[in-house]
Amino acid sequence: MNASDQQVPFRRTVVSYVQRGERMTVGQQRAWDRHWADLGSEVTALPEGPLDLASWFGRTAPVVLEIGSGMGETTAQLVAAQPEVNYLAVEVYKPGLAQLMLRAEKLEVSNLRLLRGDAIVLLRDHLEPGSLDEVRIYFPDPWPKKRHHKRRLVQPESVALIASRLKPGGVLHLATDWENYAEQMMEVCSGESQLRNRYADEPGGWAPRPEWRPVTKFENRAHEEGREIRDLIFERI
């Protein structure tokens, strides 16, 4: 596979997520009703071909893509802290996107756009090669049982696809609290020829935890349960 080609022939037989319930709180529903039409889109509803990000955001700016924004606790803070970037969040969980819009509304941010659906389809079919400045994957579903490891998002094919969408010098930043998954991430990213580890000289190649990445309740719980957080930061060659 030539991951630098615009059409990467990546078709998966399994996906890295499960469909969860869509029941929302009153506040989440109101946020959805107020903002989704302007800020969000279903991946399956996107026009064929590359997404016109400059038109959607109303400006040209560096683009950050976060895959799996969850309930938006971290994402909203990151968006507010970086008004100079166009921030894309892709997530499959509708109440999570609604909660993110609620958080973003309170922080009065204007540089956030949301996509609901499969991040791989978004990357493959709607984002051009070299169009992203950074891709963030924080605490993806670890699928801890060995028979489910094939469902993990970070695989050679997906990382090759992500790398092809990064600009030269662009960053892939991952974080996980599952040791086995961290080791898999390191192996996969280190084996991708389009990427280099910015912290290859550090012990194990792990990146120091960035002070700007907010500590969430989820991360605090991982610490309480004795799981070490690992950050990986790779750069597009």
TrEMBL record:
Q: Which UniProt keywords apply?
A: Methyltransferase, S-adenosyl-L-methionine, Transferase, tRNA processing
* Residues reported in the UniProt entry to bind S-adenosyl-L-methionine: E66, E91, D118, D141
GO molecular function annotation: tRNA (guanine(46)-N7)-methyltransferase activity
Pathway(s) annotated for this protein in UniProt: tRNA modification; N(7)-methylguanine-tRNA biosynthesis
Pfam families in UniProt: Methyltransf_4
Q: Name one GO cellular component term.
A: tRNA methyltransferase complex
What Gene3D superfamilies does the record point to? Vaccinia Virus protein VP39
The chain's coiled-coil residues are none
Residues that bind substrate: K145, D177, T216, K217, F218, E219
User: What catalytic activity is recorded?
Assistant: guanosine(46) in tRNA + S-adenosyl-L-methionine = N(7)-methylguanosine(46) in tRNA + S-adenosyl-L-homocysteine
The record ties this protein, via PROSITE patterns, to:
SAM_MT_TRMB (PS51625)
Tell me which EC number(s) this protein carries: 2.1.1.33
InterPro entries tied to this protein: SAM-dependent_MTases_sf, tRNA_(Gua-N-7)_MeTrfase_Trmb, tRNA_methyltr_TrmB_bact
Q: Which CDD domains match?
A: AdoMet_MTases
Q: Outline what the protein does.
A: Catalyzes the formation of N(7)-methylguanine at position 46 (m7G46) in tRNA.
Its family remark reads: Belongs to the class I-like SAM-binding methyltransferase superfamily. TrmB family.
Name this polypeptide is given: tRNA (guanine-N(7)-)-methyltransferase
Q: Which organism is it from?
A: Saccharopolyspora hirsuta
